[in-house]
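User: Sequence for Xaa-Pro dipeptidase below. Tokens please.
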Amino acid sequence: MTAPVTPSRLAPLQRHHLASLQRAYGEVLTRLGLDGVLLYSGHPRRHFADDQEASFAAYGHFMHWTGQADLARSWLLIQPGQRPRLKVHAPDDFWHLPARLPDEAWVATFDIEMGRDDAPPALPAGRFAVLGDVSATLAEALGADRNPPALVGALDEGRVRKSDYEIACLGDANRQAMAGHRAARETFLDGGAELDIQLAYLGASRQRETALPYASIVGLNAHGGVLHYQHYDSVAPLRRCSLLLDGGHRFRGYCADITRSWSGPDADPAFAALIEGITALQRRLIDRLVPGVDYVALHQGMHEGLGELLAEQGLVHCSPEAAVSRGITRAFCPHGLGHSLGLQVHDVAGRVDGAGRVLPPPEAHPALRLTRRLEAGMVVTMEPGLYVIPMLLAPFREGAAGRDIDWARVERLADHGGIRIEDNVVITPTGHDNLTPPE
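Assistant: Structure tokens for Xaa-Pro dipeptidase:
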């Protein structure tokens, strides 16, 4: 786990990150015959027939330079051998506070214009590309290629391995997110509703809801078996069997993505044993993280471990190998083991190799988001799970495989939802470093 982040420690790391980024962009642009690239941060969208805007996060490649997730309608011009040129949309406005730049190392290395309009800067003569959420009409007016796949693919690949600065930011995001998880657990044990738990999480992690890298999943009881459960009940259930909390944090653009599951006072005793089993499985899988490991093989290892756990806890009567081969473990865990993590929660280039060749997930595991071999500098999530999801288990009630499942035990756990244990781990040259603090 990385040491606590301080501004004095971050500044030299950030300067080195930007210098490396300048070199990498220069090499890619020169190789593709481009004189520069214009990055658009993006803009929030209005709700239909309304004047209110949805939550916003800037384009990932724009954030790669600036770390500014909420800087909308702004432009960044990158040219080989020249200082980055940033035009910030900062109009005179008494309805909203105009954009302001932070006291961070990157500001001194950019040429900055605080613009009253959101028009892109004029491009010099040459061949340029423009990346981001821009229209074909605007790209044509600029005389720039819009989102050329070769350039986007090369820049995506450049975000796969994180710099020391990025890893430090991810570590700080993890520390702040874990403070929220601790407070959420206490609120759950004190009898709070899902909304109370979410508010405790936000308060302890020091963030507003619109700043989250993704909407927190706060599932009490059976709601924990809805993988992307999207509501917050304001009234606590009469029985408190379980809590699944998937909550993150964003620091200088970089995302934490942590999940924890806890037993409640009304939980079946078997549920606590399953949490212990999934936690132990996750630790075993993390221990296998080294450069060169095939992440698809790790995912398969998760299912082998799930088969063993289901058999040990009496949820299946067949062998662990049969539980895997007959698809039973997939019914108990339909998602992938994890994904790449960075400026986006599901970060770019997870399903291609270093040359841009597509690496599709296995046919039996279409939800797996990371299919490449691990390399030093990658940051990945490790999140095995075990859920009681009626619609996935229902097909097994009829047929030979149904005899392998102990339906009485399943029914006892039906209102407990599920379990997911998720940490964020950086791959080092000799192994790994877990960025997620202990509880």
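The mean pLDDT is 96.
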